[in-house]
Amino acid sequence: MRPETTIQNDDAHVMINPKRFSIRDSMRYMFQEQRLLFLLVGIAIAALVSNVVVVFPSRSPPLQYSEPITGGGSFHVAELTSVPRRIAYELHSGHVNTGVRIPLGLKPKSLRVLVTGGSGFVGSHLVDRLMARGDSVIVVDNFFTGRKENILHHLRNPRFELIRHDVVEPLLLEVDQIYHLACPASPVHYKYNPVKTIISFKAFFFTDHKTNVVGTLNMLGLAKRINARFLLTSTSEVYGDPLEHPQVETYWGNVNPIGVRSCYDEGKRVAETLTMDYHRGLNIEVRIARIFNTYGPRMCLDDGRVVSNFVAQALRKEPMTVYGDGKQTRSFQYVSDLVEGLMRLMEGEHVGPFNLGNPGEFTMLELAKVVQDTIDPNAKIEFRPNTEDDPHKRKPDITRAKELLGWQPMVPLHEGLPMMVSDFRQRIFSHHREGGNTISSV
Ligand SMILES: NC(=O)c1ccc[n+]([C@@H]2O[C@H](COP(=O)([O-])OP(=O)(O)OC[C@H]3O[C@@H](n4cnc5c(N)ncnc54)[C@H](O)[C@@H]3O)[C@@H](O)[C@H]2O)c1
């Protein structure tokens, strides 16, 4: 009698030599009735189905961003219905950061997003939107112009992290996307330490270039190392005092390279160059936004930007300061429109640069009139000599953003301004004094 048969029928024998029985018996069982063949076919079918799910991710419905922004008054709520599904962008474009495939029936994982400058004006509103759509957000900020109050409402959320860090110093984090906003954006702040502005904020005597060059370099290096998508917030200042009007993205600008504003203007131009070089040379996924004047709740109170200046002055019953004859023009975009544009740009397929601004054009005197209408019809205007290299005209051509991102501003000035005014009123007249933002306007 063969041992196997004996074993099958004799429990005592099984106890004596179980290992020999187990392997032989399993092998025999496997090769009987073509079971091995069926097993291999099953594995092949499972692999095929898993691949089909990955190749056709667009069957899933598009993402809807409809949650309201919290804090800072009532906001315009927009929907990103045409934004490609994030998982589709990650898998389709080969931009898979985690290496993990999403099995059939499971929800796509939330993204890990780094926002440098996330406690500042624009950054904090962007963080609100990212948190509302379920992402995990890391804010890196050195609080030069940012305020903890802007992000206080997220501090207890386990999906939120705050790191006090200067982007001039390298940093290693694991994220899927990097929104690089860290940079002093108002003339008062970027002129405070111009070399740091171009490089970033390290040496205290010189300021603004450093943030733009070394800070951007560090964040691009991080994006390369972890294969993250990188978005640069550039500025309409790259057009300088433009000789073309309105400004299209193909216009190369008219910038004074040695003027007092050039730490910011040229710093951002170099940042754009670095971003494109990393894209072309190292195949990093990048996006470039050229932001035009933006206003809204949480702006610094006294930072020399015209909307915040006028609003704060009118609320304090001080005369509104108009530089020059007041006939120079600007366009003013409400912050929720900008955040919408930035997110569409990040999720979309186009590198840019894209102008993100409101094409509605106002002279400084017209803006002062809107502020009078909103706050105080008796508010006075005081004329002062114009500042150096102040552009005469500024108005974005947003055709490209309309066509390729499906984006355009939704909030007109007369709707956006009251939301900013109520935030400013509360901050100016509350007993709490804002730290670090007391530099007087120019
Ligand atoms: N608001 C606008 O109208 C406008 C227009 C054009 C471009 N932008 C760009 O958008 C971005 C955000 O602007 P904002 O208006 O929110 O300005 P903001 O000053 O309110 O925010 C900038 C943030 O970056 C932080 N920061 C500055 N230097 C840093 C450094 N070296 N390391 C770490 N953090 C640093 C500041 O503390 C602040 O929180 C900037 O890059 C700016 O150039 C803004």
TrEMBL record:
Pathway: Nucleotide-sugar biosynthesis; UDP-alpha-D-xylose biosynthesis; UDP-alpha-D-xylose from UDP-alpha-D-glucuronate: step 1/1. It is a single-pass type II membrane protein. Its cofactor is NAD(+). GO terms for biological process: D-xylose metabolic process. GO terms for molecular function: NAD+ binding; UDP-glucuronate decarboxylase activity. The chain crosses the membrane at residues 36-56. It is found in: Golgi apparatus, Golgi stack membrane. Keywords: Decarboxylase, Golgi apparatus, Lyase, Membrane, NAD, Transmembrane, Transmembrane helix. The keyword Zinc does not apply. It is an enzyme of class 4 (lyase). Residues 114-420 form the NAD(P)-binding domain. GO terms for cellular component: Golgi cisterna membrane. Catalyzes the NAD-dependent decarboxylation of UDP-glucuronic acid to UDP-xylose. Necessary for the biosynthesis of the core tetrasaccharide in glycosaminoglycan biosynthesis. This is UDP-glucuronate decarboxylase. It comes from Deinandra increscens subsp. villosa. The lineage of its organism: Eukaryota, Viridiplantae, Streptophyta, Embryophyta, Tracheophyta.
